[in-house]
What we know:
Helix content: 55-70%
Distance between the termini: 28 Å
CATH class: Mainly Alpha
Order of helices and strands: HHHHHHH
Largest sheet: none
Amino acid sequence: MDGLPQGFSTLESFLAKVDQAPDVEMLQEARRLLVDRRKVIGLAALRLKRGLSQAELAKAIGTSQPRLSSWERGTEKPGYDSLRRIKDELQVTFDELMEALDA
């Protein structure tokens, strides 16, 4: 299957291996694959494409994981300073970030 690391024929087999012996690189790759295979959209997709967990991104931008989760679900919107920090951490433009938040 396209995009899977060598030695894995399905996303499920790769994720099972990650669960058994997770390392940082495998976790990051699993997150990136989820975006493509599970049709993740919005801020979560931008985050996963960078291989980050919610907790990792939240820490990097100086917020909490529950707050980031609420932004990803669309129940809250981040303020300007948070938008700037997210944009910088995810290495996207403001337009890309705003489009993701509207998805």
